[in-house]
Design brief:
This protein has about 150 residues and is of the alpha/beta class. The protein is built from two helices and eight strands.
Amino acid sequence: MRAVVTRVNHASVRIDGEIHGQIGKGLLVLLGVHRDDTEKEASKIADKICGLRIFEDENGKMNLAPDKAGAQLLIISQFTLFADCRSRRPGFSLAARPDTAIPLYEQVIRECRERGFEVETGVFAAEMMVDSENDGPVTILLDTSEL
């Protein structure tokens, strides 16, 4: 799995012009599922997202995990994170098919909620418009093959 994790002051996702999910201070997570991913990778990335110490403490150091900072999560599926860009037109054969990707995407959301986070989401495979105000900016790339 891959995730682009951005610390935000606020973020939202609109579908058909209507706000589907929105958060205040927290993490905007764009989540891609690889065709070979399993429940193991979903747990690994959920644990990493929930434990990233990228919020500032009282001394201005990035030292607080999301739960200690009162962060919310907005998790959006993003199959394009597994784009093969060797040619000018990206290919997406490395991205998981919906029958594999949806349950793993939902597992990540569930595991984050089980850790006590308020989690908002997009809708898998929907045309979404994402708005965010990056804080820092702080953006972290996660790949379970490297964790």
